[in-house]
Specification:
Strands 1-2 form a two-stranded antiparallel ribbon. The chain is mainly α. Keywords: Repeat, TPR repeat.
Length: 448
């Protein structure tokens, strides 16, 4: 049977009740609700033969960014295809197949075609937004949201989520006025909208408004209940403000009780989730850079890194794994990780190119530096500075890789390389290097 979803789009599903349950599922995904998997089970209990709910198992598998989850994504696509999908649903299936096949451009292209036909298909939009972000394509994110916004009205279900994505894409493209305006408007509609909260947090960070940033997140923390791991990333942003303010004890407290709380339900559900481990490794590295004793906190991250050797699906996570392995002196494991990465980079597809051009040189540089060869690390990583964005991650997240290169250049006594990095950072970041904790010493030492 055919029913319509909250945006008025036809879907193949048995009842209006099941369609409403699917809307509830999509809302959970958009708003980062911890119970989203349970919402999917509720839809499938009402109709186990609906194509899109069946496919959502594959979507969630791919969102985990684990190679081991790819077969589940393909199996979900097979099942959905056998359930008589309508033309829009067939496009979803094709996009998920391309996504699982690591053909990123094809997946994005299918979602873009779908959105030309159905500009209010918010699920397709959000998957496009996610994928473009983790390919480092902020202009693609922004172009899509701005193209679609005229089709949306303030009272439409999902409008706040569109605003949140508008805010984040604007921030990544340097339009901080629009980012703050759209993000605050989304939070006014829903103070638990973590993606919008996160977009404003990014904006305040990029503008050096650290005290405001702490107040922004602290003021909204009462609304974080029932949310998933994205709340960890928001708290990571709060820790970044405290880092810049020199409040290292507060950073460690947030690490242990906030974004890397090993006893929390969220962490226990997905203890090696890519973004959580990125948060942890990048913050430990920054703390050590500032001379802070981080104790044995690297060990559990290194354990997870070692268990994931050979999984190269998330390019941006790989340098963080390498940081953990080298920080704990696991030279053999680091070597095995590099061997697996080199093998994966030999392919011809877009994922292999990302690994070859960005992930591999950065990981090799981290390994070389840990072995005491800073000059070789600089030489290996220098050509990748202009391509690191393809690993995905925001400007705030990519910053740890830029800081690493600066440290390697300093240790190699390579002032030209230090100047190159400082010039690149200064051209993009509105806060000058002299006012940033990870850059001020180099900025004082090098004319740029």
């Amino acid at each position: 049977m055919t029913h319509r979803n909250a945006q008025g789009l036809e879907m193949s599903i048995a009842s209006a009740e099941a369609a409403a349950a699917f809307d509830h599922l999509v809302e959970g995904f958009l708003k980062n609700r911890l119970d989203t998997p349970l919402r999917l089970k509720a839809v499938l209990a009402l109709d186990a033969e609906a194509p899109l709910p069946a496919l959502m198992k594959g979507v969630f598998a791919m969102l985990s960014y684990k190679s081991a989850a790819v077969p589940a994504a393909l199996a979900a696509a097979d099942k959905a295809e056998a359930l008589n999908p309508n033309p829009r649903e067939k496009m979803y299936i094709a996009a998920v197949r391309a996504w699982a096949g690591l053909d990123w451009d094809r997946a994005l292209g299918i979602w873009e075609q779908l959105l030309v036909r159905h500009p209010r298909d918010i699920l397709a939009f959000r998957l496009h937004h996610f994928t473009a972000f983790w390919l480092g394509r902020a202009p693609v994110m922004r172009e899509m949201v701005e193209r679609l916004m005229p089709a949306w009205d303030r009272d439409d279900p999902g409008y706040g989520s569109m605003l949140a994505c508008r805010a984040f894409s604007a921030e990544e493209c340097g339009d901080y006025a629009m980012a703050e305006y759209a993000g605050r408007a989304a939070v006014a509609l829903d103070p638990a909208d973590l993606w919008a909260i996160h977009a404003v947090a990014h904006t305040l960070e990029m503008q050096g408004r650290r005290g405001e940033g702490v107040a922004w997140i602290e003021g909204l923390r009462p609304h974080f209940g029932g949310t998933n791991n994205i709340r960890h990333h928001v708290l990571w942003h709060q820790a970044m403000y405290h880092m810049e303010l020199g409040e290292h004890a507060k950073v460690l407290d947030l690490y242990d009780t906030g974004f890397r709380d090993l006893g929390s339900e969220v962490t226990q559900m997905q203890p090696d989730l890519y973004i959580d481990c990125q948060n942890a490794a990048s913050m430990l590295w920054r703390l050590q850079r500032q001379g802070v004793d981080v104790g044995d906190r690297w060990i559990e991250i290194a354990d997870k890194a070692e268990a994931r050797i050979g999984d190269t699906l998330s390019g941006f996570t790989l340098p963080h794994w390498m940081m953990a392995l080298t920080a704990t002196g696991r030279d053999d494991a680091a070597g095995r990780m590099l061997d697996a990465l080199r093998e994966a980079a030999r392919g011809n597809g877009p994922q292999a190119a990302i690994l070859r051009d960005a992930a591999l040189p950065v990981c090799e540089a981290i390994s070389l530096h840990a072995r005491g060869d800073a000059a070789a690390a600089v030489k290996r990583m220098l050509p990748a500075l202009g391509t690191m964005h393809v690993l995905g991650g925001s400007h705030a997240q990519q910053d740890v890789l830029e800081q690493f290169f600066l440290v390697a250049a300093r240790d190699a006594d390579d002032q030209a390389a230090m100047r190159t990095l400082l010039e690149r950072v200064a051209s993009r970041h509105p806060v000058p290097p002299a006012r940033r904790a990870g850059y001020r010493d180099a900025a004082a030492a090098v004319a740029y």
